[in-house]
Write a structure and sequence with these properties.
single chain, 214 residues, alpha/beta, Rossmann fold, five-stranded parallel β-sheet, three-stranded antiparallel β-sheet, globular
């Protein structure tokens, strides 16, 4: 399976989530930035409100594409197994955390634009990203969402590694992922267009002024 772009992936993912369509207790939470175009299509198809849940990956120093953990709003920090991969000192780790915390705050302020987060208490929260490699970022998102007492947490992504689905599945109530390739390697390999999602595109999608998908 190959996706044209994130909007295409969102439309396909929405079909796998059809059981949640039209329910008043469902909310869709996007992990910015790449998860927002996917989640926008899901929210539109399900007729559900859309919000963001800001999470930041903690990349290894010098190897930032590889996650050693993640942070989320509310002081949530999730760490993976780093021993035997690349040695990271406590000082290096805290420097990464400080940098990503600053970006997390910036994104929350920009994307919310003064809006309060949606109330998840007693609701079904569908957490959406453009894919899962290690599951670290989504694990932090699930823990952050869980603290707000939703009735159910559903993780929904178009593509993921088998290992990431297992990691996230141990934390979420349900995982929906239409495509788990045996040889995963990286999320971007499964998209024809995996260009970085801009702040401007996120602003458009969250404001409801996004152009129609091609």
């Amino acid at each position: 399976m190959q996706f044209k772009d994130r909007r295409d992936a969102g439309r396909r993912l929405a079909k796998a989530l059809d059981a949640w369509r039209g329910r008043s207790d469902v909310l869709v939470l996007a992990l910015p930035r790449g998860g927002v175009p996917v989640a926008w299509e899901v929210a539109k198809a399900l007729g559900a409100p859309l919000d963001v849940l800001v999470v930041r990956k903690l990349g290894f120093p010098g190897q930032e594409e590889y996650a050693m953990g993640a942070i989320a709003s509310g002081g949530i920090r999730v760490m993976g197994e780093t021993d035997g991969i690349w040695p990271v000192s406590e000082r290096e780790l805290e420097a990464v955390v400080a940098r990503e915390q600053a970006e997390l705050i910036r994104r929350e302020q920009r994307y919310r634009a003064g809006r309060a987060p949606l109330d998840l208490a007693g609701r079904v929260a569908i957490l959406v990203d453009d894919g899962l490699a290690t599951g670290a970022t989504m694990s932090a998102a699930v823990k952050a969402a869980r603290a707000t007492k939703p009735a159910r947490i559903v993780v929904a992504v178009p593509v993921a590694s088998v290992e990431a689905v297992q990691v996230v599945g141990a934390l979420a109530d349900e995982v929906t992922c239409p495509f788990t390739p045996e040889r995963f390697r990286a999320v971007g390999l499964w998209y024809d267009d995996f260009a970085q999602t801009s702040d401007e595109e996120v602003d458009q999608l969250l404001s409801g002024s996004a152009p129609a998908a091609q």
